[in-house]
Amino acid sequence: MHSSASSTPPASASRRLQLASLLRERWDLVALGLLAIAPLVIPALGGALGGQVTTLFIYCILALGLNVMVGYTGLVHLGIAAFFGIGAYSMAILTVPMYPFQMGFAAAAVISTLLAAGVGLALGAPTLRLRGDYLAIVTLGFGEVVKVTLRNLEQITGGMKGLNPVPPPGAGVTLGGVDLGMAFAIDPRYFYYLSLIVLAGVVVAMRRLENSRLGRAWVAVREDELAASAMGISATRVKLSAFAMSSAVAGLAGCLYAASLSTTADPNAYDFNRSIMMLCAVILGGLGSIPGTLLGVAILVGFDTVLAPWADSWIQQMNINPTGSSLLSFSGWRLALFGLALVLVMRFRPAGLVPSRRLAAELHEGQT
Length: 368
Hints:
CATH architecture: Orthogonal Bundle
Number of helices: 16
CATH topology: ABC transporter involved in vitamin B12 uptake, BtuC
Number of domains: 1
Strand content: under 5%
Number of strands: 2
Shape: globular
Low-confidence stretches: 1-9
Largest sheet: 2 strands, antiparallel
Order of helices and strands: HHHHHHHEEHHHHHHHHH
Distance between the termini: 50 Å
Strand order of the largest sheet: 1-2
Oligomer: single chain
Structural class: mainly alpha
Helix content: over 70%
Radius of gyration: 22 Å
Mean pLDDT: 86
């Protein structure tokens, strides 16, 4: 009896350790599962909050695309917002009533994603020999070129007005007596679930790529391109695949962004600031880490789109800032808080908040 009783605590402790290990290793998938049931228990997600969280999901997809370039392959990319915009405008051109295409959401999303990947290949091909600052300058310049082009081609892109209305997914389709287009337009939870499903699909795909031959090749090129080439890895193909994959995922995020807003917004929505915010999110969370990237976006973009508006509204209600001074508004300090957060992370956790095992091990070896 005594031996049986004494064996129970170690067994329960083992189960707790296994559960803790599962949550630590797969907490991103656990979080996605919790988010799937959140609209059932949080009524506010059926309103404005649902739209804000949907935008957060879309930026998570965009950041995961950037993580392929910066985190896995080690290539500095400062123009990811340009591919975000290419996806959004391609979706709009293929679906808005002013153009003759008027495709369905799924077909337009596939074509727009492939187009963004093609543009990524076109950008990557002549820049394969560049690394570090030189590649950063090229991608930064490309992002500015795309923004200015979208602004000046008014007859095609609508200029500063953008293209609208972008039809919602399922427009004109009735399923079970429900007009899907009308449902997407009225209830934010439909876009919430669509964005969450796409995000989950991208997370699963990135996990498989991370452990695949291509994913290991990305990391090998990041660590030592010469050594990787000596082992038979084609650095040219690896870099081009990273450009294409990163651009495709960013284009997919742009498709969801345009559809969720029912407009492309103006070209300034795809400027350098957007690229930098995504880069900060990837660095803050941890380069090459899928959970870290999601956490970084949740902190930065969640702070910007959810917390800051709520805090400004609370300050107004409390009559703390009757004159509307930017010094007393919460959002007026957001960039300073972003910078402070990055400085603190780089000082105390240089590998990021949730670093990948490989990168954390490399930094530990370098410090020892």
